Amino acid sequence: MLKEENVQLTQKINSMETLPITAQQHRVNDLEQTVLTLRGVINKLQAEQKSGGLHKKIDSRPSSSRSSYTEKGRTQLESHRIEVANLKRTIHDKDLLLERSKEMLKIAAEREDELLRENAYLHRQLEDLTRPKGGFISA
After folding, report:
1. So what's the pLDDT on residue 18?
2. Least confident range of 27-41, 56-70, 81-95, 116-130
3. Torsion of CA 102, 107, 110, 116, to 10 degrees
4. Alpha carbon distance 106, 128 (integer Å)
5. What is the 3-state secondary structure (H, E, C) of 86-125?
6. Cβ contact 41:87 at 8 Å
7. CA distance to 28, 86, 93, 96, per residue, from 89 (Å)
8. In-domain check, residue 98
């Protein structure tokens, strides 16, 4: 009975070691990469916004040909602001998901440790039961 239970525990441990943690780790890595990519895009857009603001300050004289340019610039600036806000929200969501994934990995690792301790205990108990006792001497 202990042997069967030990085999079952070993199977559980092996399945926990190979499947969920590996899949979770890949998911965490993907999320971290996505967050880094989104942060890079935000930095790029913010740099474009700042450089666009400098051009407007330099060329702020009123002119009929420039008014359509400034209107385009305003529209583009507004769309960049919206995009930056959306990207920040996405980064925040991904950060939350990443934290949840890390917490799940931590829980899985704790459970794996519990199973390993239980498995080691069962191995010792099984050894104690199967080890020949030296207390009796036959005549």
Report:
1. 60
2. 56-70
3. -110
4. 33
5. HHHHHHHHHHHHHHHHHHHHHHHHHHHHHHHHHHHHHHHH
6. yes
7. 18, 5, 6, 11
8. yes
CA distance 11 to 3: 12
Specify burial of residue 11 (Cβ count, 10 A radius: 0-12, 13-18, 19+).
exposed
Coil vs helix vs strand at 61: coil
| Total number of residues shown for the chain | 139
Q: How many domains does the chain have?
A: 1
- Domain carrying residue 119: 2-58+68-128
Name the band, by pLDDT with cuts 50, 70 and 90, for residue 28.
confident
pLDDT value for 12: 66
Phi then psi for residue 131, to 5 deg, are: -70, 130
Binned at pLDDT 50, 70 and 90, residue 90 comes out as: very high
Mean pLDDT of 79-99: 91
Q: Which of 65-69, 78-82, 98-102 has the least mean pLDDT?
A: 65-69
Residues ≥6 apart with Cβ < 8 Å to 13: 112, 115, 116, 119
